[in-house]
Design goal:
GO terms for molecular function: DNA binding. Keywords: DNA-binding. By secondary structure, this protein is of the alpha+beta class. Helices cover 21% and strands 31% of the residues. The chain has two domains: 53 residues, lambda repressor-like DNA-binding domains (434 Repressor (Amino-terminal Domain)), CATH 1.10.260; 119 residues, Umud Fragment, subunit A (Ribbon). It has a nine-stranded mixed β-sheet, with no helix packed on it. The longest helix is centred in the N-terminal third of the chain and has 12 residues. The two termini are 23 Å apart.
Length: 229
């Protein structure tokens, strides 16, 4: 049994949970959990984060690879032109110059709750060709996940999702929507011109068929950023 697998098994037993119970809450098969605990299957950072939240304690490991979501996407480099020193003795307004320079290569992206009216924080992301992650820099924002409706898709309460503002459904993916008076994250698939499939996954997949007129699309998700602890 691997050291990491042993930690998971010990915490699971400490909480009085069977493999079947933990696997169901994490949205994986009991066999997969058994292979992780016995060291026969590699545990990526996302599922490790899920276990930590379910078991209520951090699970530590050395270097963890994640092939599904990138927790810390490598920042794209952009060059800043050198500002020539003024030769005269007059003091140059250095701070405004640097602020202007950095605003062209970094974008302060706000973090919202589901109301989209309360800013709870911000993060800086690189700007390339006046875009962030390939989308207009003025349309991207973060959402703090407010529930575990998408637990099976590795989106848990407290995680951050990067999104871009749109009111159109263009292809299947994960969206921030308003439906039946509530705002939520859902995977959406197109069934026909008049039908869409809303998918929820709390470990058990639930679906609902709706017409495009029944929902209001607020944004499409780009990626999720998780905290291991």
């Amino acid at each position: 049994m691997s050291r990491l697998g042993q930690q998971i098994a010990d915490l699971r037993n400490k909480k009085g949970m069977t493999r079947k119970q933990l696997a169901k809450k994490a949205g994986i098969s009991e066999k997969a959990l058994e292979e992780m605990e016995t060291g026969r299957k590699i545990i990526n950072s996302t599922i490790l984060h899920t276990f930590s939240k379910i078991l209520g304690e951090p699970i530590e490991d050395g270097v963890i690879n994640d092939d599904f979501f990138e927790e810390n996407k490598e920042e794209k480099r952009a060059s800043v032109k050198k500002i020539e020193k003024r030769k005269d003795t007059e003091t140059a307004p250095i701070e405004p110059i640097w602020n202007d320079a950095f605003s062209s290569v970094l974008k302060t992206v706000p973090i919202y709750d589901y109301t989209l009216s309360n800013v709870t924080g911000s993060r800086q992301l690189p700007v390339v060709d006046n875009k962030v992650e390939g989308f207009s820099k003025d349309k991207v924002f973060y959402l703090t996940v407010e529930d575990d409706d998408m637990l099976g898709f590795r989106m848990m309460k407290g995680d951050l999702v990067l999104a871009f503002s749109t009111h159109e459904f263009n292809n299947q993916g994960f969206y921030f929507i308003e439906y039946d008076g509530k705002r939520m994250l859902r995977q959406i698939k197109k069934l026909s011109q008049s039908q869409l499939l809303l998918i929820e996954n709390r470990g058990v997949v639930k679906t609902r068929t709706v017409s495009p007129q029944e929902i209001k699309i607020l944004a499409k998700l780009i990626r999720i950023e998780i905290n291991i602890l």
